[in-house]
Amino acid sequence: MAADLIHLGIVTSSLILLVVVPFLPVSYLLFCGQQWPKIVLSAMVIGASLQASAGLLWSHLVVRWPLYELAALGSGWLLLMLWSMRRAAHQRIVVYDPDSEPVQPALILILCAAFAIRSIHPLEVAYLGQSDAYTHLNYIHNVIASGYLINPVYPPGYHWIMALPSLVFSIDPYLIARFGGAFFGTGLVLGVYVLLDQCVSRSSAIFASFCAAAFPGMTLLMKTGVGVFANQFGLFLLPAIALFYILSLTDSKRNASDRPLLLIALCGMAAAVPMMLLHVLLVIGLERLAMLVRYRRKWLVKTTRTGLLILPALCLFAYHLSQVGAGNRYGTAEIMTGYGESAAEAAVVKKVAERIERQVVAHAPQQKKRVELISSSPYFKLVLDYLSLKRRGFGNFKLDVLGAALAGLFLVLLIAGMLRRTSAFMVIGIWGLLTSVQAGTGLFQFSSYQREGWSLLVATCCLSGIVAASVYDFGQRSLMFRIGVAGLMTACTIWSLMHPPIHFPIRSSAEHELIRVLRFIGAGSAGDRSTCGSADDVVCSLQEHLAEGLDTVLVTRRFVGWGNQGEIAKNVLPPDTVAEILIVDGKKDTEIFQPGRQYVVLIDELTDLSGRHMLGAFAMVTPSMVRETLKSRERLFRLNGLILQQIDRLSASRWQVERIIVSENLTAYLVIPADAT
Question: Is 17 helix (H, G, I), strand (E, B) or coil?
């Protein structure tokens, strides 16, 4: 545990030093006189978004020398620094009295709790977080090695951010993937706080940030801070973009610096998670329509200005799409609707196709062929999929009632915002109402990318903060009431610390032991024994059974059913591994065991995955994807049988086989040439 705590500190400190600290002077000059949460959040947004955008452009324009990308990042920093200095020199700086509105110490405690809760699970287990964690680790490896991703369609911005510690400080990418999630998870909590603090009230900011940080009912949201994946960065940007957008609508000179921050944050989202950018644009578009109905003063000016701030992000993403190739775009469109088994979607496709056919029934045959070509196009299906209703609720009465209640509360907040002309209430109300509809029906989402439930949780934290602050303001005159609120928040935090969010190892129930063996044997005699649990740790004793002077080959089955992007064994090995890796995929009828080498064969046991282990909410939202995941998992486990068959066929005169039980679900077979023992 001590070694893991050190690794956690190293990864987090490196991200702070590279992403936040260099941009603090820029943020301070832009928001001089404002309090530190806004300055720190802005620095974090600038640093991460600038690196994401620069990394995407570098991947397409240079496609090599990733270390030199730091020069591009440094150039961006220099330009921003000069611009902010010039801006600060020509504007009147208002310095606020720090005693007039001090930041409550509660915020520090909330941020610490948020970081601790999201770090417990990575400290306890060696395997990574969500199901595609190893794919993102592979992409980080791609950036470090070559400056681009093996998957040309995936926007590389987030992976350039997470590759920074490795590029600068040579930190093991596996450690970044394991411990880096709490950085942006805590940033999300800070973003929620600043949004409510700047746009609503200080008390609502405290309650909303606490809800995002440690409230037990938000476990699904807290899980996004465990491990690293691109949506985590998008969730961090959501409250920041809402903040900068709301403030950019005002004509106050004090908020003029928020407009370029909105532009930068949108570019960061376009470079890393463009699906969430589409969601953000929906919210902004609906807010502009609502203001057109309610308050038209300067509407055209503000809408035009907003459009100009959005334009660079759209151009950045359009450039990325133009570089990936027509074939990759076509294939991605098919994948996006690959899990669309909804009857409603099929009905929509059929209805639209019939309507088009009726319009051209009297025309030439070539026009009918054109209609058939269009209706069979994955792009046409993609649009219909996005606009179709995919389900009616979650298939759970309690969740359906909760979803409807949330939608009603967001609608009330939206109406209150329109009546009061309060932009914050309107934006949060539209945000929550839209995501409630998206999560409950699948409307405005793609079948294989339904992620707005997380966005709904962030909006719910904001709504909860507003409601809780109203209740607190009513009863805060009572000392007992304040003590009771503090006690309840403390109890919730302790509960979350005792029951932190975890990711169930879907690929294999032996992922923890498997990765420990891979990394320890991969490091050879230089393995770090400080990670050994005890003197008789089975994993650490495996090295003693191997023969000296022979090359070691680690053998595992394939763990992913497509490509090698998320293969566990290839991605978790130490950077300077001394062992080779052999992945058995069953496609090649070749002999695994060759003379002159020794083998460590890892066989994991197939265990049953019940519904509670499969992210219940996710299973309700996309049951077809979950079913396919389970089927693929069972097929891949059969590869262990092929490996064991080859072990059984080995000649006892030529090979010595030793079977060692590593854990209940993992067995190691040491296959060593007989003449080497």
Answer: helix
Instruction: Provide the pLDDT for residue 460.
Output: 97
Type of residue found at 72 = A
Q: Determine contact, residues 73/50, Cβ cutoff 8 Å.
A: yes
DSSP character at residue 659: E
Residues 6+ apart with CB under 8 A from 228: 129, 133, 136, 137, 162, 176, 177, 180, 181
The structure tokens listed for 469 are: 């602050």
CA 184/CA 12 separation, integer angstroms: 10
Query: Given 3-state DSSP classes, what are the helix, strand and coil percentages for the chain, each rounded to the nearest 5?
Result: 70, 5, 25
* pLDDT tops 90 at residue 495: yes
For 56, 393, 407, 520, 616, the CA distances from 439, given in Å and listed in that order, are: 30, 8, 11, 43, 14
Cβ count near 217 (within 10 Å): 13
From residue 438, how far is each of 188, 279, 344, 392, 446 by CA, in Å? 21, 10, 15, 11, 10
- Burial of 587 by CB count in 10 Å (0-12 exposed, 13-18 middle, 19+ buried)? exposed
The count of other CB atoms within 10 Å of the CB of residue 551 is 12
pLDDT, tens only, 150-206: 888 999 999 999 999 999 999 999 999 999 999 999 999 999 999 999 999 999 999
Contacting residues for 368 by C-beta, under 8 A, at least 6 apart: 357, 360, 361
End-to-end alpha carbon distance in the chain: 35
**Spacing of C-alpha 394 from chain mean position:** 23
Dist CA 212 CA 222 (whole Å): 7
